Amino acid sequence: MKQDELIKDHLKPFMKTLKNVKSVIEKNVCSWCIENYIPFSSMEKEDMHIVKYENLYNNFKKEIIKIIINMDIKKVNLNRIQNFISPKAKSSSPLLEGVNPLKVWSKKFSKKQIKKILDIVKKFSLDSIYDEHFLPKNNLNKGNLIIFQ
Predict the structure, then answer these.
(1) Residues 118, 121, 125: CA angle, nearest 5 degrees
(2) Sign of the alpha-carbon dihedral angle for 119, 125, 128, 130
């Protein structure tokens, strides 16, 4: 897909926001929003299986079982999967340091930065998929998003 088509089909309502980002943090948040907004807004719920990192971290076996069922996989060693850490994980990864990765990110930013992050997420209507503790809402479906056409 060409950039012009991407903008026309998905990003036109967000161009003002995208043009006004200044910091690396804001650029990363915009990238995250784009990576999540486009599939949510373009696919029907029944065409996708949504896997939330936060749920994988908090309820690994339950989430993996959902994935296995969805993919119709017949034989899996859950213990082998649960103990696997990617060889690409950095040595400073919260997972390797025994730190909760769901909480560590917010400690790296000021309140002003977090507010800016949340403002950007809200502009993409992706704030509707998280609760006040920055955890995904379990009732996520396409109906939670306001899709701009």
Answers:
(1) 125
(2) negative
CA pair distance 115, 67, nearest whole angstrom: 33
Distance (Å, rounded) from C-alpha 4 to C-alpha 95?
A: 39
Look up the pTM and report it. Answer: 0.73
Task: Tokens for 118, please give them.
Answer: 């949340």
Asked if 36 and 136 touch (Cβ cutoff 8 Å), the reply is no
CA distance 92 to 87: 13
Q: What is the mean pLDDT of residues 117-125?
A: 91
Amino acid at 23: S
Between 47 and 123, name the one with better pLDDT: 123
Radius of gyration of the chain measured on its C-alpha atoms: 17
Residue 65 lies in a domain: no
Give the phi and the psi of residue 111 in degrees, each rounded to 5. Answer: -60, -35
Q: Which domain holds residue 10?
A: 3-44+104-139
CA distance between the termini of the chain: 18
**Does residue 25 form part of some domain?**
yes
Q: How far apart are CA 99 and CA 51, in angstroms?
A: 21
Q: Is residue 85 part of a domain?
A: no
